[in-house]
Amino acid sequence: MLIVNDHPIDNETIETEFKRLMRLAARQMSSGDLEKKSFAMRQQAREHAINRRLLLEEAVRRGIDIPESEVERFLLQAKQAEHLLDQSRKKENIRESIRDACRVEKLIKSVIMAVPDPSDDEVRKYLAESQFIPPDKKNDPAFMQKVVEKTRKLVKNVCQNKALNEVIAELRKNAVIVES
Prior knowledge:
Elements: E1 2-4, E2 7-9, H1 11-26, H2 31-61, H3 68-76, H4 78-87, H5 91-113, H6 120-129, H7 141-173, E3 177-179
Antiparallel strand pairs: 1-2, 1-3
């Protein structure tokens, strides 16, 4: 069991996250590779559980609230709630689990939506540093327009991930994480 800022994270929660990661990885890896990476994936599941707890605390601190109507809408989409049902040992916990997941999701969206679109200079710099554009295509305006559009999205995604990772890193600096 882990304790994160006086909030317990039980082994069942970490195990559920581990199984989710393994299912995702199984789509892309052989069973032998999956077995080799299982220790690292278990560690990743542990880190995800810690990060989710810290993000939830931050969402609560920021006053992010989820109305009952949103919880109801989520419950109606049972397929999306399956992983939460696995994590909730008691039926009465499901509403709070959904509310917590929605809070974390809203916090993540607020962090990534605050990231501005990359400037033309940032896109040009990224493209100049990249080696993946075939030389014969560099003078093709239609091709380059598509490359610029995709690069802009890629750079924004990288910046959004960086912003979220910075928030998590800051939360971890102040967190008290105890193995018990």
